[in-house]
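Session log. Operator J.P. requested a structure for one protein chain; no other inputs attached. Running the standard single-chain path with token output.
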Amino acid sequence: MKVLLTGGSGDLGQILVPMLFSKGHTPVILDVCAPCDSKHGVFIQGSILDRAKLQELIHGCDCIVHIAAWHGIHETRSEKNSYEFFDLNVRGTFEVFEAAASLGINKIVFISTTSVDKPNTLYGRSKILGECIAEDYRKYRNMNVITLRPRAFIPFWNRDVYANYSDWARWFWKGAVHIDDVASAVLLSVELISRQHLERQPILALDSAYEYTDADLAHWDADGAGSTFKRNIIQNITI
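Structure written below.
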């Protein structure tokens, strides 16, 4: 499959591209900035906010992993305001889903966040709205969608955030998720929606606060929809 990664030049994209390539997929990186290494993928320079060109940019792709977004750290550092969060995280998500639907691309993995439990933040609210958009297209445009809610996963090599490994480790051990685990979840999601059409949109939390046992996996949701994920998952969104 040809798998498009919006914002694919970022940290998660750097991990995903070789993983997708190793599984026989063709990764396509859509970003305003070139990746550090594109030997395993195809790079297309462009913005998801460029409505006039977006369909042309994603044409021919079979699946989309929608990563592009401003993150919580941009709010913490006061680097982005409410307009910028809305433009990229909310309108950008709409532009991706609408362009995909128009081209018949019906497989999308949407990267959300556990920060949806913080609706008092710009980042949290923007992702809540993004999830509503994803569910709307799943429900009314028959799209095959999985939404992943990872906890913070900035890698140790990101020197824009962490000056050294020790600084990262002190943050990570408070309960963050490793970026490799997030990438693995994305890859599994891509493989799942390539094999079958899901009747509902799973919204899966990737949080170090809880690990699932073999018994959990063997009896998934035995007590009803969402029971296995306990408080970390919502199976259906009410709009």
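Operator note: Helices lie at 11-22, 51-58, 72-76, 82-103, 122-140, 165-172, 179-195, 214-218.
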